[in-house]
Amino acid sequence: MVYDYGTIRIYLRDYMKRHNVSINKLAHASEMERSQLKRYMDNDIQRVDIGVLSRICYSLGCRLEDIMKYEPKSEVQVKE
After folding, report:
1. Which element (helix H / strand E) includes 41?
2. Sign of CA dihedral 8, 13, 18, 24
3. Cβ of 26: how many Cβ atoms within 10 Å?
4. Per residue in 6-59, pLDDT tens?
């Protein structure tokens, strides 16, 4: 039996757009590669790195909940 527990979504791209922050500016401020930031912006990561998230939040002056949210499933579905 497998349960659908919902998902974690990263809204970094939306946050950056709302606050007019370019990927180049964030890459420089957080000392990260653009390719790594792009994966976070595209919500295309399997395992989050707490150090990376800390650098992003520090560089943007935001809280983790400003760029990442838990989205529960409206109905828990059971798959067999």
Report:
1. helix 34-41
2. positive
3. 21
4. 889 999 999 999 999 999 999 999 999 999 999 999 999 989 999 999 999 999
Give the distance between the most distant pair of CA atoms in the chain. Answer: 47
In this prediction the pTM is 0.82
Work out whether strand 2-3 and strand 78-79 pair parallel, antiparallel, or are unpaired: antiparallel
Q: What is the dihedral of CA 30, 32, 35, 39, to 10 degrees?
A: -60
* Spatial distance between the Cα atoms of 58 and 37, rounded to a whole number of angstroms: 14
Residues 39 and 52 sit within 8 Å (Cβ to Cβ):
no
Cα–Cα nearest to 29, from 65, 54, 66, 5: 54
What pLDDT band is residue 77 in, cutting at 50, 70 and 90?
Answer: low
Distance CA 32, CA 24 (A): 10
